[in-house]
Amino acid sequence: MPDNDHIRRLLSAIALQNDQRAYKELFLLLYKPLKQFAYSILKSGEEAEELVSDVFIRIWQKKDKLTTIESPLFYFYTTAKNLAITRLNKQKRKVNLSPEDWLVQMNSVYDPEQLMMTEEMLRQIKNAINELPPRCRLVFKLIKEDGLRYKQTAELLQLSVKTVEAQMAIALRRIAKCMHFDLKPALQQHPAIKNN
Amino acid sequence: MSQEKFWVLLSKKLTGEASGEELEELQTLVAENPEWQYAIQNLGDLWKQQAPEDTMQAEDAYLLHLHRMTEMNIPFGDSFPELPRITGKKKTRKWYWAAAAAVVAIIITTAFLGVGKVFSKSSEKPSAKQENEISTRKGSKSEIKLPDGSVVWLNGGSKLTYTKEYGQQTREVTLTGEGYFDVVKMSDKPFIIHTTNINIKVLGTAFNVKAYPEDQQTETSLIRGSIEVTIKNRPKDKIILSPNEKLLVYNVQAKNNSEYSPQKEIAEKAPMVAIRQLTYQDNDSIAVETSWTSNKLSFKNELFADVAKKMERWYNVNFEFENKSKENLLMYGTFTSETLQEALEALVFSFGFRYRMENSKVIIY
Q1: Which of B12, B65, B85 is best to mutate for the A interface (most A CBs within 10 A)?
Q2: pTM here?
Q3: pLDDT tens, residue by residue, B18-47
Q4: If you write DSSP's letter for every residue of B120-162 in order, what string do you get?
Q5: What pLDDT does residue B116 have?
Q6: Torsion angle, CA of A129/A140/A86/A55, rounded to 10 degrees?
Q7: Least CA distance to B68: which residue of chain A?
Q8: Which of helix, strand or coil describes residue A31?
Q9: Which residues from chain A sit within 8 angstroms of residue B7, using beta carbons?
Q10: Which one of A60, B88, B181, B216 is at 20 to 30 Å from B153 when CA atoms are compared?
């Protein structure tokens, strides 16, 4: 998962030393997640690819200002989102303007050999993730796979932090259900429930 | 304490968002409900797993990205050292950039002319450019995805080469043997295939090229789209093919022995260049010419001599005709999973000849 400190180091190498290798590394690091995010909005692989290229053209053109970016990962996603919305508006496409409709692809591949779970369980987990409602899935993907913080995700998707918390809880509960772990008996014994 | 609170706290813990207070709260919850420990453990393990890194696609995208920057005249590259700041003279600076961009454009073009030369003379001197070379042995096939997404199926005993710069300015490959091409459309970058006798220029299409050096002819079969073929010794003639047509070009330097051979007779009677319709077997929608891509060895009204060549590449064996008259048998048939033995038996049954095996050699008599 891309992390902010690493990205910050790459950005300052680009800004201060004009470092092309750092630029390439950054591109390789963020290409896939940014393209997936852009794709969820634009629904076109070609356009999503072009959009990532546009984001990186900006990075190269604004080299001098790169060191002033506070949270780089968030900067990349916001830029991608803004460019994508601009594109939709230019094409007069009225669809997909709301984050509610942004259906994102997940890329987690879970290896049963490293987990204490059966292959069947993992298949169910994969299904559960794929069947999450679009907004829930996007929140889960941005936080779990792309490394955004709750607050950043909320701001990016114009949600409250509470909503992000709730979406994450839903995703987690659905995944845990596939681990054949039934919470009901536990809850029934719980004093708080008994008192109800 | 609601069940939802548990999930909210657990997800915050996993993502590192939980405060000290919240962690304590979660701990208390779990202490009261030890059953939850199982979910915490498994979710924690799941969280640590990362998606496998696959930079192949990103590498390709990066090349296209650099290409886009060049097209947009955005300076990038070693030839652009950081310029000294010229304060208050913005115009001068802009001019400097434009001039520098022009220089780079010229350098790039020259470099590619160089590649073109290397291509046409590749047999004479080893190329100075870095090349990717993919080759298949007889009896095996291979699928290659080129950096631009175009796909090439390589039949047995064939070779495809392309430079590291493929896709930046041009898309050029060299083929020896047989390949099926599915080319991604890029109107500004035609796709060019060089073979010994012909060059094929396409914009975006699917077609088959058969150019084995030992064959009497080079065969280009078009499935869809349109392609332009130029013959090396007749550079002025351009032949445009339409879908479902194939172009046959008889190899000039094919060995010229005075012995009687049916192929030679055909070569003499036939024009140097011919356009034919693709051949279809009854009840098969795939043309015989491209059937190998769906794992079929297929032929219709072909001389045994030609069928033998196909079988040599398919089964990785050699054929020898002790009885030359058998070379002229006209054959049709389709093989999929048959062994060499089974295929030969079927041909013997239908067309009447005898054969014996010596090591990996099939002798027809």
Answers
A1: B65
A2: 0.48
A3: 999 999 998 888 888 777 777 788 888 888
A4: HTTTTS--SS-EEEEE--TT--EEEE-TTS-EEEE-TT-EEEE
A5: 33
A6: -110
A7: A53
A8: helix
A9: 168-170, 172-173, 176
A10: B216
Residue B318 three-state SS? strand
- The complex scores an ipTM of 0.83
d(CA B308, CA B289): 15
pLDDT per residue over B263-322, tens digit each? 544 444 444 677 777 777 766 667 778 777 777 888 888 889 889 988 888 888 889 999
Report phi then psi at A137, rounded to 5: -65, -45
The pair of structure tokens assigned to B350 is 């239908």
According to the model, what pLDDT value does residue A159 have? Answer: 92
Place of tokens 């490959």: B173
CA-based nearest distance B11→chain A, Å: 6
Tell me which chain A residues have a C-beta less than 8 angstroms from the C-beta of B69: 57, 60
Per-residue pLDDT, B284: 65
What tokens appear for B75 in the block?
């300076």
* Number of residues assigned to chain B: 365
Q: In A, which residues are within 8 Å of B55 by CB distance?
A: 28
Q: Do B42 and A176 touch (CB under 8 A)?
A: yes
A145: which DSSP letter? I
d(CA A130, CA A128): 5
